[in-house]
C-alpha cells in the first residue's frame, strides 16, 4: 500500500507554485518529517515533508512544473522491515557519491552550485542549520578567483581580484537569459500594475534625527548588554509609525471592494532584502512590543528571509509597511 505525497494547501492569495528541487530520489528511505521537495510560490518557498516513514516509490512531478494545492507529487511505499533486505539500508554507489547539496543548500544556492560544478561540502554555510546560501557560493567563487600569490612574486594589488571582461571571438556579443524567480516576477508585475491602477503620490518631509542619534549612542552599549540585541533605528521608526497610525486611523485602514476596513490592531510590515528578492515580513501587534522585542523580532525575520524559511504567516496580513531607505 502506498501513501500519496500532496502539495500543501496554499493560502487564499496563492493559486499555484513551481517545483524547485527534489531532496530525495526514487528508492531512498525517508523518515516522517524529512523534506522531500521545495515548492516556490509568489511569496515563499514551501518545504514538503514526508507524511510518514517509508521509501520514495515514485516521483510524479518534475522540477520546473507548476502545481496546485492538493496535487499528488509522489508516492511512498512501506518501509522494509529491519534485516529483510541488505540493499534497503546499503546505499548504491550513485547514492553514496551524490553531493549533499540537495539537503544543505537553499534553492538559489543549489542552482549556482550545479551550474558551476562545485562541491557543496567545501562551502561553509551561514544559513539556518548550516545551510548554504547564495551569498556563501558567491564568496566561495570569489575566493577561488582571487587565488594564492605565486611564491617569490609580489601579491597582485586588490584591484587584480576583479576578473577581466570575458573575451569574445570575432566581436561576438553574447547574452545569457535567466528566468526570474516567481517572487521577482510577481514584484515586477505588481509594480507595473500599481503604476496603472493607483493614484501615485510621493511626499517628502525632513526631520532632525540628531536627538534620536544621541539617544541611541548614549544607551547603545547598555541596551545590547541588557537585552542581547543591538539598538537600531527601526525600533524608533516602528514606535513613531504606531503613534501616527493611532492619530490617523485611516492610514492604518484598507480597502475591500466598496468598503473601508479600519483595523484595531497594528501589524507592521518591515521590508527586507533576501536572495530571492524583496519581502515584507510582519511585526504582529507592534503597538504591544517593547523596543527590545521589536529589534529582536526584526533580526529574527531578517535571518529567516536570508535563509528562505519565511512562512506564509510571516508575510501576510500587514496593515502598514515601513521600508528602510
Topology:
Layout: E1 3-6, E2 17-22, E3 29-30, E4 35-40, E5 45-49, E6 54-59, E7 66-67, E8 72-77, H1 86-89, H2 93-97, H3 101-104, H4 107-116, H5 134-146, H6 182-197, H7 210-227, H8 234-247, E9 254-256, E10 259-261, E11 268-270, E12 272-274, E13 277-279, E14 282-283, H9 291-307, H10 312-315, E15 320-322
Summarize the structure.
With 325 residues, this protein is of the alpha+beta class. It has helices at residues 86-89, 93-97, 101-104, 107-116, 134-146, 182-197, 210-227, 234-247, 291-307, 312-315; strands spanning 3-6, 17-22, 29-30, 35-40, 45-49, 54-59, 66-67, 72-77, 254-256, 259-261, 268-270, 272-274, 277-279, 282-283, 320-322.
Question: How would you characterize the overall build of this protein?
Answer:
The chain is of the alpha+beta class and 325 residues long. It has ten helices and 15 strands. It has helices at residues 86-89, 93-97, 101-104, 107-116, 134-146, 182-197, 210-227, 234-247, 291-307, 312-315, and strands at residues 3-6, 17-22, 29-30, 35-40, 45-49, 54-59, 66-67, 72-77, 254-256, 259-261, 268-270, 272-274, 277-279, 282-283, 320-322. A four-stranded antiparallel β-sheet has the order 1-8-6-3, with no helix packed on it. The chain has a four-stranded antiparallel β-sheet with strand order 5-4-2-7, with no helix packed on it. A hairpin with a 2-residue loop joins strand 12 and strand 13. Helix 4 (107-116) runs parallel beside helix 5 and helix 8 crosses helix 9.
